[in-house]
# Entry
Amino acid sequence: MKNNATLVRFLLLATLWGSSFTLIKVSLEGLTPSQLVLSRLVLGALLLIGIALVSKVALPRTAEVWGHYGGAALFGNVIPFLLLSYGEKSTGAGIAGVLIGGTPLLTLTVAALALPGERATPRKIVGLVAGFAGVVIVIGPWGDKLGTLGGQFACLGAALSYAVGFVYVRKFLSPRGIPPLAGAASQLIAAAVIQAAVTPFLDWDTPDFTGRVTAAIITLGVLSTGLAYILYFRLIGDVGAVTASAVNYVVPVAAVIVGVIVLDEPVTWNLIVGGLVVLIGMGYAENRVKGLKKEPPAAVPAAGTGGESEAARTGDTR
# Structure
């Protein structure tokens, strides 16, 4: 980190992204999953639209580009947001954060299958196997579970959807060189439109906007879905995309800590050990483990919230 201000932004970003899992849990006390997702997407989109207008950043104008942002929004926002919201109805915020921490490993897998230029190197294979072992440890199928298996697999499905979204962006949007703020705003706009279209067909109850629920959804939409990406883009400008993407190593830790403080969630041995194994596997696959020979960096996102080129062009707006 260049200075104390950059370090503060780094830790604040990790906290905002990590706390999103607890905010989802609290928001579900008064909203259905579809209502929650629509609310956070609209709030986040409005914030980024306002900033784009003030910054005089133009949004895309062609139907083709907007169509691709629709695809990116579907896999990078709508599907994972819904899966997380449904999953956290029956599993904890901390375990959801740890399972989403497996996104980079899934991204490497999807990229190796879908992008001809991505090689499944021995390092990546070892990292993926270690990461999978960590996920199994976190789920803990041999004993008491931190929530239902269905909820946990929904969170893991969200991580897979994020991975597909990153590869989609890498293939169809990254080569266009769209400014980061314009890309993030466009993707959130497309996601809000898609979610608005499907919400009437999903479960719907009368919202219960208690003070706690209202504060959670506003914080989730404005801060964890909107402001977080401003901080992320600033970090990229300060220290580069690779270093900025290291925030994803701190997000699962923040998710567990915030869940314990706010929701009094339990911390079990398999959550800690499994989370560490996932992070170690991720670090090895991405060649972040010190003392090892370096490989050329991958062209796809290195972590759940963005990576090399995609980090500067789109956001994992969890």
